[in-house]
Design goal:
The structure holds two protein chains of two kinds. By secondary structure, chain A is mainly β. Chain A contains one helix and eleven strands; from the N terminus they run αβββββββββββ. Classes of the chains: A mainly beta, B alpha+beta. The interface between A and B is medium-sized, with 37 and 33 residues.
Chain lengths: 182, 405
């Protein structure tokens, strides 16, 4: 074993502390480690935790998680993944009485002390033109490119969510869920 | 809370104690003395308590005292499942278990209130023979997991037997347990089907002083002779010490569904009940005297030279006769009755963890099947065996050493 996984695990400790592991007063013999299959990604500027991707047979899907800026404001300018031909940063907005999603102008801006949540019904990373099915339990690599050109890589665990919770129509990209998420 | 609660409680306890004393007899003084504080403090809320997920051993085995509620679910891999499917399955179950045990929702779930108070929720995963076959590693399945001997008194119903993968989910609260189970099974069902589910319970947490041996539905203290978690005796009895890396630090589980004939048992005399087991019903102390923690003395005789403990009594037959026979029982009562005819349908989910089923459960159960006075009231109607991988280290999924990454 190289020291790489160890280093990741150690970094993950800081990462877990940075996010909100509420009320887990466990008596673990060591500090709270990162979830086994969750994203563990780190640069000095940005961490990604609780990353997951919706399982999909093909077409497109979305990546969710929590982005935390460690010390200074960070802009996520773009994203990429080996499983998608095209990746976009999206937001969901109301337009003409309907919730529609569209590309987020200027990317995601993450302020220190204010984790940026990517969640169904809100900001997310769209993986389009999937090159292979994303099956539940798969680990999908995602790389974020920040405003300064540096990159942050993380792994998202694929989960199945109920049919209908997320629908992406070709072209229109409407039919995002009807706002049941509070 | 009514004003003046504490004095009332104290009085109730004193009265209760007197009543027990009146009916208890000789062994009782010792039992009471073991409880040093007769007036418990107001019960503290335990909902926020968590058990660590990572470690040398999986949670839910040495978690002590045993939680009040349990669900055992056996899953079968869907036909055609292979290594990649099982790996994805275990990755999902590991991630879910870790989050749920910490009081958090699984990834993609949006109801933080349901798991927020896990009350010592644990998730334990076991592998049945079919899993080893599906991943093309039949050689890795301990032979005793594949083929448990049949015992003379077995009346096994296939609906309570076998399984490719076991989920044992325990908690002191049935609500977070229910939530955890549904989320785990939801993530498992693309690869598996549910073979059987067995739910069990022990006395509610706080109903008796912590550490009291749970009472089963026959009224017996069940587990008096158990090795105590954290002791060398427990480590020796429970954890696998030699074998493949994924199993060293793991264990083996025998789960037997034992039906109790409670109708006839209830009508059986108290002296007879205690003779059958060789322990008293009230404290669980041996009929030959001493404390609950003492062994039954098979050599003690009465004034006429007749042994006090019957040779065929349950405890004398069940007591480990070698180090290798020791196991840790983590049992739960089940009650699925009454039947339409108004009869009980209840018993014990006998869950025993041990380093080697071949040296522990097999010889002990062979002895009990051959000669145990209790057999008139109990019948083994379900049986399943699982290899229980060692605990996952941070960044690993359960069984990763077997499945690879």
């Amino acid at each position: 074993m190289t020291s790489f996984p160890v280093r990741l695990a150690l970094l993950g400790v800081g990462l877990a502390a940075a996010t909100t592991l509420v009320g887990c007063g466990g008596s673990a013999s060591s500090a709270t480690p990162p979830p086994a299959t969750a994203a563990v990604a780190q640069t000095a500027a940005l961490t990604v935790t609780d990353a997951w991707v919706k399982a999909a047979d093909g077409g497109m899907t979305a990546v969710y998680g929590t982005l935390t800026a460690t010390s200074a404001p960070v802009t996520v300018a773009s994203a990429s993944s080996p499983v998608s031909g095209r990746t976009e940063l999206h937001e969901v907005v109301e337009s003409g009485g309907a919730m529609v999603m569209r590309q987020k102008e200027g990317g995601f801006v993450v302020q220190p002390g204010s984790p940026h949540t990517l969640a169904p019904g809100g900001d997310h990373i769209m993986l389009m033109d999937l090159t292979a099915p994303v099956r539940a339990g798969d680990q999908v690599e995602v790389t974020l490119t920040l405003g300064d050109g540096s990159t942050v890589a993380f792994t998202a665990l694929a989960k199945e969510v109920s049919a209908g919770e997320e629908k992406y129509e070709d072209g229109e990209m409407s039919g995002h869920e009807s706002g049941s998420h509070g | 809370m009514t004003p003046g609660g504490p004095p009332l409680k104290r009085r109730a306890l004193l009265v209760g104690g007197a009543a027990v004393l009146a009916g208890g007899g000789a062994a009782l003084g010792a039992g009471l003395a073991a409880r040093d504080d007769p007036v418990p403090a107001a019960p503290a809320s335990f909902g926020a308590e968590t058990v660590p997920f990572h470690g040398d051993h999986q949670p839910g085995i040495e978690t002590h005292p045993v939680q009040a509620h349990a669900a055992f679910v056996a899953l079968d891999l869907r036909p055609g499942s292979g290594t990649a499917d099982v790996r994805r399955l275990l990755r999902l179950l590991t991630d879910d278990a870790e989050r749920l045990m910490a009081g958090r929702v699984p990834l993609g779930a949006a109801d933080p209130e349901l798991p927020a108070r896990p009350a010592r929720l644990t998730v334990t995963v076991g592998f049945g023979p079919g899993l080893f076959d599906a991943i093309g590693r039949p050689d890795q399945c301990p032979p005793i997991i594949r083929q448990l001997p049949e015992f003379r008194t077995d009346r096994l119903d296939p609906r309570w037997c076998g399984g490719d993968l076991l989920l044992q989910v325990c908690s002191d609260d049935a609500v977070p347990l229910s939530y955890a189970l549904r989320r785990l099974v939801r993530d498992a069902r693309s690869v598996t089907t549910v073979r059987w589910t067995q739910r069990g319970f022990n006395p509610a947490r706080g109903a008796e002083p912590e550490g009291t041996t749970p009472r089963n539905l026959m009224g017996q203290r069940d587990g008096s002779a158990n090795p105590v978690p954290g002791t060398p005796e427990f480590e020796q009895a429970v954890w696998v010490r030699e074998g493949p890396d994924w199993l060293v630090g793991g264990s083996m589980l025998v789960l037997r569904r034992i039906r109790m004939e409670l109708e006839t048992w209830d009508d059986f005399g108290r002296a007879g009940k205690e003779m059958v087991v060789a322990r008293t019903l009230d404290t669980g102390a041996p009929v030959t005297g001493g404390l609950e923690t003492d062994d039954v003395d098979p050599r003690m005789v009465d004034g006429r030279g007749i042994p006090i403990a019957a040779a065929r009594s349950h405890v004398l037959q069940a007591t480990a006769r070698t180090e290798g026979e020791k196991m840790f029982r983590r049992g739960y009562s089940f009650d699925d009755g009454p039947t339409t005819d108004g009869l009980p349908d209840a018993g014990l989910l006998f869950a025993a963890y041990q380093a080697d089923i071949a040296t522990a459960f097999v010889p002990v159960q062979a002895r009990l099947a051959e000669s145990d006075l209790l057999n008139e009231w109990i019948t083994h109607i379900g049986s399943a065996t699982f290899a229980v991988p060692r605990g996952a280290r941070p960044g690993e999924f359960i069984g990763q050493g077997l499945l690879g990454t």
